[in-house]
Please model this.
Amino acid sequence: MTKASASQTRLDTLPTNRRVVVGRFSRVLRATFGTALVLIAIAGCQTTQPKESAEAATEHSETIILREGDVVKINFPGAPNLDATEQIRRDGKISLSLVGDVTAAGLTPAELEQEILKLYSSQLVTKEVTVTLTSSTFPVFVTGAVIRPGKISSDHPITALEAIMEAGGFDYARADLGHVKVIRNEKGGVKNYTVNLKLALQAKQSTPFYLKPSDIVYVPEKFSWF
Model:
């Protein structure tokens, strides 16, 4: 006797009402099991591809880190006689009255505010200091399929597209505008970001990609992505 015949025999020995219940349960179980297999198969075909977001990098790009040569304005709302405008020296410091030298390079304006507050804490009635970056000159480098590759100095925030225009613009006969690379030294390593400047030129991209000091903008040639 086969397994199927044996199962049918056992089912036939049950009362009619129980045979109906068992039959329905068996059909439901088979349908549920089949659906589960389909869902597992679909899930197995889906993969998550990690990618470096140019938009995320842009957000991060706009964080200001003070460095040598920057000019900062320090305001004390409760003690305007202490206000000062200082340029960060080669040793990364500025000099303030009453407290002397203060390390500024490598800090954000907000972090420098906190540092100055600590130094002046016993002398201020109003515990408030504001630090504003008023001037900053930094280099970026543009290379690849542009008219005048080389170093560019900027005293204001500059985007990848603006830096390329400063380098004479694209060599349109060779340039691949959709896969421009920004090479950046960040957190002890090198990161590459891909920026589609073809969309920017067509006014289809609203978020500009801001550069950081010493970024390298590389415009590849068509069909030879870097």
Summary: Residues 14 and 22 are 9 Å apart (CA to CA). The chain has six helices and ten strands. Helices lie at 3-12, 16-45, 54-61, 109-120, 160-166, 197-201.
